[in-house]
Specification:
The complex is a heterodimer.
Chain A lengths: L10 H5 L2 H8 L8 H6 L1 H6 L4 H18 L24 E8 L4 E9 L2 E7 L11 H10 L9 E2 L2 E2 L2 H18 L2 E6 L5 H13 L3 E5 L6 H11 L4 E4 L6 E5 L13 H7 L8 E6 L4 H4 L3 E4 L5 H13 L10 H16 L4 E5 L4 H13 L7 E7 L6 H12 L3 E7 L3 H4 L3 H5 L4 E6 L11 E4 L8 E6 L2 E5 L12 H8 L6 H11 L4 H7 L1 E3 L11 H7 L1 H9 L6 E6 L12 H5 L7 E2 L4 E3 L1 H7 L3 E3 L5 E10 L2 E10 L7 E5 L28 E14 L1 E2 L14 E3 H6 L11 E4 L2 E4 L17 E6 L8 H9 L6 H6 L8 E6 L5 H7 L3 H8 L8 E6 L8 H5 L5 E3 L5 E3 L9 H4 L7 E2 L37 E2 L5 H14 L11 H5 L5 E5 L6 H6 L4 E2 L11 E4 L1 E3 L3
Parallel strand pairs in A: 6-7, 6-14, 9-10, 9-12, 10-11, 14-15, 15-16, 20-26, 22-25, 29-42, 32-41
Antiparallel strand pairs in A: 1-2, 2-3, 4-5, 4-16, 8-13, 17-18, 18-19, 20-27, 21-28, 22-26, 23-24, 24-25, 24-27, 30-31, 32-39, 33-34, 35-36, 37-38, 40-41
Chain B lengths: L17 H13 L4 H27 L14 H12 L1 H12 L9 H21 L27 H34 L3 H10 L7 H34 L11 H27 L8 H32 L2 H12 L3 H13 L7 H4 L2 H28 L14 H24 L5 H11 L1 H14 L1
Classes of the chains: A alpha/beta, B mainly alpha.
């Protein structure tokens, strides 16, 4: 029985007095007698609230109201009245599309948040070029580039699309009547729908002329393959099945090719019985060459001779061989033996835009029966289409005044084709369809903006058998119009290009929705009979090609052109790419000539260090055929072939935007129609240049930082005991493994997840895609050249590069070298160094030196093996960074979001650039420490997703930004407490080791030893 | 009753009477400042303001205005911090340890030595505060109950120990110093004519009446505070050294650090006392109180502690060699022969070689020479901290992260500013405080004063 307790509010209620009764009826208090009081003058007179008191009250309430108003400024945000189906705040949407920037093609996924594209991620359907390079990763920022052209202009004045189209129409009509040409100049076009539009132009205008030209040209290679297969396209290379790879000057891992080869290359580089062997013969120490098992320095003019010699060795022929060093011949002999032993499973590359060399390489591949296996001549890669000859024809047409209307779309000849700047004005009318008022657009009559690839519709056939689409991930930010629509307007056709693409998809009998979902479709494997006669033709033409190759121009100095992260220069205004250190020199924000130490001595070139460690270098003056390039900084580069100078393209832009204007020198000015190298006169200039390199120590100083062994040793001892010795401590109780010797209690890492990362040093090629991906994902600020020079780069993830030295502890002991001389000698890299790359991020130590020293416990350990950083607790003593053996912690020296010093470089300082920030990651304030978090925002998101589903987390359901960006699979991330996870398996690998294990930090990151397959 | 051996030199020269001492001590307070004081004060004030500008610039723009980088996260800031803390050590040693050991010669120098301690600890305290990236949340280091959640400081961190060590040291030293000042303030109060001055000194002297009970309490409190302060002489620099010793960085991770740092601190502290007192005795004509004997005593301490420091340096080198640890060996080799070799050899020359001259009696009783060596020692001790901090950090485990350090103009201005601030405080002190503990000194006049000693000797002769 429930008790009926009653509680009284007081004795009055208990006694039920009249007052209580009255109150009970009148629940609410009576009105305030305002009228009664204010109306009663006498009462007011007698009140003792003086004017003084009144003023006091007013003063107090004003002050109180003022204080209460001291809140953060109100940021107005407007909620959706009707929420779009696809957009839920906080939930990302992904769109499959194609990344095309005038040079590269990749099948990618775009992550958008609240309708903003914020990240480029690799395609997940295994299509052609599904990896993301550093350039592809960074390309999302070009969308938010404030230097983009926002609306059509005529010279300096604003214009509009109607005027542009009318002007174009009349100019084209006029050119027809005047008997002049109507020329469209583009970079490579491999979009069927775009080609369709261009064909309609050709049909409508007899004087129409389409010129395809690429700044970083492979035109001569295309000529060779066109002759061999009848298809103007490069062959598809299958590196997965190549056991021997020989490259003469081709930097095939680093963007020189239309096809991404890194992932297939890495497949063959897995240590084991079938590991591939890679020979590289080159002038510049390229990233590809750094990964080779054997690398030989060869001058660019001798590439042809090397190929001819190799051809003779493998085929038994005796074509003409030009001058070639004995060293090169010795290694070529070895390579030839290896190649012959692996007929049909080997590949030979030829570097640079040199037709004769490409023909010789094709002949070698033919002689080795590689054509059809590793070199699939029948499967065409269409990404590169440019033709140098058509550009020189256009130049002579312009010179002769035969061009009535010139439309330049997605090409920048005024920057990249020497002498073209003066010719553009000779066209009666010119229109640039461009993303910015660049060097070419600013010379044209009209310039009009075209959408960024993330705002565009398109379709592509990058490779035979693969049909890709591009779809917009955001509405156009500016008043832009697809170039195809501009062209169609000439025909009075107002169809949207979007509809052209959609109907093209439908016309192929494909589902528009399905193809937009996947980003493309694999129609066939792409193989065709076109390559059947190629081998025979290649062999037949070999001796002619050898004669041609022997004529290669040679001189005391050869300037060999190459590409860095900014590539041919299309994305030159992208600060992420400038801040990404060069994989080899580790220099940022620059191009320069690389020169060997011996040549530097000869010319008097010096690289000196200032008191703060920043490096200064001498400058050179380069003269090629009367064209002089002044103030070219010189960087002393181990591994550079004597008599050669490397010079990167894509720099020295003058009208690209605030980030990159006048950064570096324009190498194109020395490059004649896409040539691979140029013979130059070199003199020492008086100027001194300031470099911004992130790495001062170039060698490992005899320390076991990168554990390395040879394939033979690796195969002989599968336990790793002899080549992967674990650090041990000698204690009272005998030897104890370094990671088991504890002073402190261990954290419990068995109960929950335990996140670990494995980094395979055999797979890492040093490309830096992970570094850029991390930069984007985690809102890492860009600090610019001056700050990098002060060793204040902010990258959470870096790729250390070490050269081998001629001196080791053992060799010094054998030679009786004293200890001081030994260390001094060990700092000097070898002239032909072996190179290792080592990605280093926060190692998430389980006995973390940083955690103990923080006075305010701002950095702490999680139960999941993570080392957390609590930004709003951090007071910035930097003690943690000092005590980090890996030096991975980064301090916010300035307010990078506001400080004027970074306005020019840090994208998040302008309203547009800020759109790229990842809303899941805090932007750190000045004075706090930051570092890799193992992408904790991704971990938490995946955990919540699993929780919502009520299922355990699945291995591979998510990964960190770096691991995701890595196309070679060098980084793998996961939960080692899940026995089935990939990372748990590799943790037991004989190659696994911890960096600086002997310090006892017990990192959550471990490395897989590097294995070289040396002959 | 204390007996003073007649063989010892008198501690107070010039046949002083009690009144003479009073007049000598009070003279700077009662007279107007000489021109030299004004010049010195103006220079110090200008330097101080320069430093204030550097601090404001740092707070406004960020630590990036210093020369630090991702590899070298501490350089001049912590070097200066440790340097100033070290300088502070002599004061407490003189006033507390020598009090407990009944070393009477300390009486004429302890007041100024202690003032120097307090002023230099104030300078020292500036650096760890300003070096914080977010100085506006500096109070996070204090274990204050808060509403942020279960947030507490990290008691494992040596930086937190520093907070306690320094604040304890500063407060105990200040109280100890102030207690000693009370009878002397009372003396000035009693002589003061100007009513404002009289009023101020009345407040400062806490109503001191010179009664027997007052003296008894004064003695007791002094003894208790001396007992409290004595362990601090050892603990403060021990804890400062643990900032380095508990880390994992080769060159920092060294168990010898605590005694080595304490010896170094006393070494530099005495050197600074020498520098200041040689000036003070000249400017304020205190030659009768701060005698050559005092200078010599302190020189002996400098020589001994300098040698201890030298032994520590050599021990470090030996242990690096003997440890067989590659990183450790390289760290020390790099110190001596790497890019910062000049800093290492400056340190060695100033700290180890220069004090050895003090073996010569002629040199250690020479004022000019002492003055020069005292400055050389402090330069050397500055380099010692720079060497430990910068050369260890700039090349640690991974060569990929090796870097160099060079100070910015703000670094320099901040450091010079603290020197200016120190002298501003010291010069103000010298004009307003009794620079010699006259009440204490009067107690030894009868046993160790010049006239007394003279009588002693005469008496002895008379007996024989």
């Amino acid at each position: 029985m429930a008790s009926e307790k009653k509680y009284w509010k007081g004795f009055d209620e208990l006694g039920n007095t009249p007052v209580a009764q009255k109150l009970a009826q009148n629940e609410f208090a009576e009105d305030l007698p305002v009228e009664a009081i204010l109306g009663d003058g006498a009462l007011l007179e007698s009140s003792n609230t003086s004017r003084r008191d009144f003023l006091k009250f007013v003063g107090f309430s004003t002050a109180a109201a003022t204080l209460a108003a001291c809140e953060n400024p109100i940021v107005e945000s407007i909620p959706y009245v009707v929420k779009p189906d696809a957009i839920t705040p906080g939930i990302p949407n992904y769109y499959a599309t194609s990344y095309v920037d005038g040079q590269d093609f990749a099948s990618v996924l775009i992550k958008t948040r609240e309708g903003r594209p914020i990240k480029v991620e690799p395609g997940d359907k295994g299509f052609f070029n599904s990896g993301t390079t550093a350039r592809a990763q960074a390309s999302v920022l070009s969308l938010y580039d404030s230097a983009r052209l926002s609306s059509p202009v005529k010279g300096e004045e604003a214009s509009d699309w109607k005027k542009v189209e009318a002007a174009l129409k009349s100019a084209v009509e006029k050119s027809k009547t005047e008997g002049k040409t109507f020329t469209l100049l583009t970079s490579s076009v491999f979009s069927p729908s775009t080609k369709g539009v261009i064909e309609r132009m050709r049909g409508a205008y007899e004087n129409f002329n389409h010129v395809q030209w690429d700044a970083a040209s492979v035109s001569q290679k295309l000529d060779v393959w066109e002759a061999l297969t009848g298809n103007r396209a490069l062959p598809f290379y299958d590196l997965k099945s190549a056991k021997v790879i020989v490259s003469v000057g081709e930097d095939f891992l680093d963007g020189g090719m239309a096809q991404q080869l890194a992932s297939d290359y890495a497949v063959g580089r897995k240590p084991g019985a079938g590991m591939s062997r890679h020979y590289q013969f080159e002038s510049n120490l390229s990233m590809t060459g750094s990964n080779a098992d054997q690398r030989v320095k060869v001058k660019a003019s001798e590439y042809g001779a090397a190929l001819a010699y190799l051809y003779n060795q493998v085929s038994g022929a005796s074509v003409r061989v030009g001058a070639l060093s004995a060293d090169a011949k010795k290694v070529l002999d070895k390579a030839a033996k290896d190649l012959v032993a692996h007929k049909g499973a080997s590949v030979v590359f030829s570097g640079g835009n040199i037709g004769a060399n490409e023909h010789l390489a094709a002949a070698i591949n033919a002689a080795l029966s590689n054509i059809g296996t590793t070199v699939q001549a029948g499967k065409s890669v269409y990404v590169a289409q440019g033709n140098d000859l058509s550009l020189s024809n256009l130049a002579s047409d312009l010179k002769a005044g035969r061009v009535g209307a010139l439309v330049v779309w997605g090409a920048n000849p005024a920057y990249a084709a020497p002498g073209f700047a003066d010719l553009i004005k000779k066209a009666t009318f010119s229109l640039a369809l461009t993303d910015r008022l660049d060097e070419t657009a600013s010379l044209c009559t009209y310039s009009a903006p075209v959408p960024h690839y993330l705002e565009s519709w398109n379709d592509y056939t990058p490779v035979a058998g693969h049909y890709a689409v591009a779809q917009p991930t955001i509405a156009p930010l500016f008043d832009s119009k697809p170039a195809q629509e501009v062209l169609m307007s000439l025909l009075g056709d107002a169809t949207l290009y979007k509809d052209v693409v959609r109907s093209a998809v439908a016309a192929r009998g494909l589902s528009v929705n399905a193809i937009l979902h996947d980003g493309g479709v694999q129609l066939s494997d792409g193989a065709s009979g076109a390559g059947s006669g190629a081998a025979a033709k290649a062999l037949a033409g070999a001796s002619v090609a050898a004669e041609e190759a022997a004529k290669a121009a040679t001189g005391e100095w050869e300037v060999v052109f190459y590409q860095k992260a900014v590539g041919a220069g299309f994305q030159a205004n992208n600060p992420w790419l400038h801040e990404l250190p060069d994989p080899i020199s580790r220099v940022t924000w620059d191009n320069y000539v690389t020169i060997s130490a011996a040549d530097a001595l000869k010319l008097g070139v010096e690289n000196t260090s200032e008191s703060n460690g920043a490096i200064n270098g001498s400058c050179l003056t380069l003269t090629v055929n009367g064209t002089t390039l002044e103030r070219v900084p010189a960087w002393i580069q181990p591994g550079q072939a004597a008599g050669t100078l490397g010079l990167a393209l894509g720099y020295g832009r003058t009208k690209v935007g605030k980030v990159a204007d006048n950064v570096g020198v324009n190498a194109y000015s020395l490059m004649k129609s896409g040539s691979a190298y140029a013979v130059a006169k070199v003199t020492l200039a008086e100027d001194e240049h300031e470099f911004a390199s992130v790495q001062l120590g170039n060698t490992m100083m005899g320390r076991k930082i990168v554990n390395e062994t040879t394939l033979a040793t690796f195969l002989a001892d599968s336990t790793g005991k002899s080549w992967n010795e674990k650090a041990e401590f000698h204690t009272l109780e005998g030897s104890v493994k370094a990671n088991e010797a504890n002073l402190w209690p261990d954290h419990d890492h068995k109960t929950l997840h335990m996140w670990n990362m494995s980094i395979d040093l055999n797979s890492c090629i040093g490309c830096g895609a992970c570094v850029v991906a991390c930069h984007i994902e985690n809102n890492v600020p860009v600090v610019g050249k001056d700050e990098v020079r002060r060793f204040r780069d902010m990258h959470w993830l870096r790729i250390d590069r070490y050269y081998s030295s001629d001196t080791s502890h053992e060799s010094a002991e054998a030679d009786g070298v004293g200890v001081m001389a030994k260390y001094a000698a060990m700092e000097v890299p070898s002239a032909s160094p072996e190179v290792v790359f080592q990605p280093v991020m926060c190692q998430h130590c389980n006995h973390a030196p940083c955690e103990t020293v923080c006075p305010v416990a701002a950095t702490t350990h999680s139960q999941e093996g993570l080392n957390h950083m609590t930004y709003n607790r951090c007071i910035g003593t930097r003690y943690c960074a000092n005590n980090c053996p890996y030096k991975v912690r980064r301090f916010n020296w300035f307010n990078y979001m506001k400080n004027d010093k970074f306005t020019g470089v840090n994208p998040s300082q302008d309203d547009l650039g800020r759109m790229v920030l990842n809303p899941d990651v805090t932007v750190r304030s000045r004075g706090v420490m930051e570092k890799c978090s193992f992408c904790i925002q991704r971990i938490q998101y995946a955990k919540l997703e699993a929780k919502k589903k009520g299922e355990p987390m699945v291995d591979g359901a998510f990964t960190t930004a770096c691991a995701q960006a890595c196309s070679t699979g060098a980084l793998s991330f996961g939960d080692v407490n899940n026995a089935k996870s990939a990372v748990a398996a590799v943790k037991q690998d004989a190659r696994a080791y911890h960096l600086l294990e002997e310090v006892g930090t017990q990192p959550s990151v471990f490395y897989q030893s590097k294995v070289r397959n040396q002959a | 009753m204390h007996y003073e051996s007649p063989v010892r030199e008198p501690l107070v020269l010039g046949n002083k009477t009690y009144h003479d001492i009073t007049l000598d001590v009070v003279r700077p307070v009662e007279s107007t400042a000489p021109k030299a004081w004004w010049i010195a004060f103006s220079i110090a004030l200008a330097m101080f303001l320069w430093g204030v500008g550097a601090i404001l610039w740092t707070i406004a723009n960020g630590i990036g205005s210093w020369g630090l980088n991702k590899t070298v996260g501490w350089a001049w800031d912590i070097t200066n911090f440790v340097w100033w803390v070290g300088i502070g050590h002599a004061g407490t040693l003189i006033s507390a340890v020598l009090l407990l050991f009944r070393q009477k010669w300390r009486m004429s120098i302890n007041r100024s030595a202690e003032a120097m301690t307090i002023f230099s600890v104030i300078q020292a305290g500036l650096f760890p505060v300003i070096h914080m990236g977010r100085v506006w949340v500096a109070y996070f280091v204090l274990p204050i109950p808060n509403q942020f959640g279960s947030l507490w400081v990290n008691f494992n961190s040596p930086l937190l120990w520093d907070v306690f060590a320094l604040s304890t040291y500063l407060s105990v030293s200040t109280v100890f110093w102030y207690v000693g000042l009370i009878p002397d303030f009372a003396m000035i109060r009693d002589r003061a004519i100007n009513p404002i001055q009289k009023h101020i000194y009345r407040i400062l002297s806490f109503g001191w009446g010179g009664k027997a009970k007052h003296w008894q309490r004064f003695e007791e409190v002094s003894l208790v505070l001396a007992g409290l302060a004595t362990p601090l002489v050892l603990s403060v620099h021990t804890i400062v050294s643990m900032d380095f010793a508990t880390s994992v960085i080769p060159g920092w991770h060294t168990t010898i650090f605590p005694p080595y740092f304490v010896a170094g601190a006393i070494f530099s502290g005495f050197a600074m006392v020498q520098t200041l007192l040689i000036i003070v005795r000249k400017l304020f004509k205190m030659e009768d109180y701060i005698t050559i004997q005092h200078i010599e005593m302190m020189n002996i301490i400098i020589m001994v502690t300098g040698s201890i420091v030298g032994v520590a340096y050599i021990t470090e080198l030996f242990i690096a060699y003997y440890s067989g640890v590659e990183y450790e060996q390289y760290a020390f080799l790099n110190r001596a022969t790497g890019p910062y070799w000049w800093a290492y050899w400056s340190m060695m020359t100033c700290n180890v070689f220069s004090p050895q001259f003090m073996w010569s009696k002629k040199l250690r009783t020479n004022l000019v020479f002492t003055f020069i060596i005292s400055i050389v020692v402090n330069i050397g001790m500055w380099f010692e901290r720079f060497v430990i901090i910068v050369t260890s950090l700039h090349r640690d485990y991974l060569p990929s992260s090796w870097a160099m350090f060079s100070p910015s103009s703000i670094d320099i201005a901040f450091y010079m500013g603290t020197i200016g601030f120190f002298f501003v405080l010291f010069l103000l002190y010298a004009r307003t405080f009794p620079v010699i503990a006259q009440a204490e000194l009067k107690t030894i006049l009868k046993s160790s004063g010049a006239s007394q000693k003279k009588h002693h000797t005469e008496d002895d002769h008379a007996h024989h």
